[in-house]
Write a structure and sequence with these properties.
It is found in: Cell outer membrane. Pfam families: OmpA. The chain is of the alpha+beta class. It has helices spanning 99-112, 134-139, 192-202, 224-235, 254-274, 300-306; strands at residues 52-71, 76-92, 116-122, 149-157, 160-168, 172-179, 204-206, 241-247, 283-287, 308-314. α5 (254-274) links the parallel β8 and β9 (283-287). α3 packs across α4 (224-235). Mean pLDDT is 82; it is low at 1-37.
Length: 315
């Protein structure tokens, strides 16, 4: 069987160098019909032979909570928040193959590429069948009833790690990939004068160009332009006190989003006071997670707009 992960040179932003995995041909002899796919596979991972693609979606930069644990008793998930290029593809299973056989082949492909299996559950380990829809509500995964299972893995590439989540149910399966490369920056101009005017007029302003490491509150070097703009705004208003407020979209665990947004706001405060000379008595950092969206969370453009850092005039 041609390995699920194959070498390619993908064009465009977020492109990753891929890799080849050869699995034993004895695993499966089925071939993909020539007319099977109007929807392309992801360049980094091919479909299980005989599967029919039904839907593909994604974005060049997305936040995705990767499920890394299931708590059947409480019907809750453990997850890690990832950011990067996101792709999700749904497939119909070949009729003569079991869900566990399909899941096992994908798992072996990840391991064969030198990848790490982060988490795996099968059948009842994934939770009770009556609660299968909670997978979809959590991060858009397919529903996982008592048949099949789920595996999450991580494969290192030259341009960064690729996280792979595969859920296999009785009749269909889904592959989600998060290529955790750096998003392209330097595309947004930060004008301190215009932002300061908006702050004066509205009492709050979102500052573009504030970037963090994936799933962390660590500011990247690309954020220095935005941080300098904030310092300039505050230097021009020496009597003004502000709240630095972190926002997320609604994707993933609510508690994690609240904590991460708060930690990121405080990281901005620490950078402004420690590196840019802003008086610490003028700043407080707070996170409100997904509680104050500026756009609809139903689509990717809205979710991107909701992930932001704002300055808010404090009394």
């Amino acid at each position: 069987m041609l390995g699920s992960l194959r070498r390619t040179k993908e064009r465009g932003r977020g492109a990753m160098r891929a890799f080849i995995v050869l699995l034993s041909a004895a695993m499966i002899a089925a071939a993909v019909p020539a007319d099977a796919a109007e929807i392309d596979d992801h360049p980094l991972i091919s479909r299980y032979p005989g599967s029919e693609p039904t839907r593909r979606e994604g974005s060049e930069f997305e936040t995705y909570p990767l499920i890394v644990g299931v708590k059947p008793d409480s019907l809750e998930f453990d997850s890690i928040e990832l950011e990067g290029t996101f792709t999700r593809i749904n497939y119909e299973n070949p009729p003569d193959r079991s869900a566990l056989e399909i899941l096992t082949n994908y798992e072996q492909a990840i391991a064969g590429a030198g990848g790490e299996i982060i988490y795996k559950c099968v059948e009842a380990e994934c939770g009770p069948s009556f609660a299968g829809s909670r997978w979809g509500r959590f991060n858009g995964s397919i529903h996982l009833p008592g048949v099949g299972g789920y595996v999450a893995g991580k494969v290192a590439t030259v341009q960064g790690p690729v996280y792979i989540a595969i859920g296999v149910a009785e009749r269909r399966h889904q592959i989600a990939l998060l290529e955790a490369g750096e998003m392209e920056t330097g595309l947004v101009e930060v004008d301190p004068d215009a932002l300061g005017d908006e702050l004066d007029r509205l009492g709050h302003v979102a500052i573009p160009g504030v970037f963090f490491d994936v799933g962390k509150a660590t500011l990247t070097a690309e954020s220095d332009v935005a941080l300098q703009a904030m310092a300039t705004i505050l230097d021009a208003r020496p009597e003004m006190r502000v709240w630095v407020v972190g926002h997320t979209d609604w994707t993933g665990d609510f508690g994690l989003n609240m904590r991460l947004s708060d930690e990121r706001a405080k990281a901005v405060v620490a950078a402004l006071t420690g590196r840019f000379g802003v008086d610490a008595t003028r700043l407080q950092g707070h996170g409100v997670g997904p509680l104050a969206p500026t756009a609809s969370n139903a689509g990717d453009p809205g979710r991107q707009a909701n992930r932001r850092v704002e300055l808010v005039i404090a009394p």
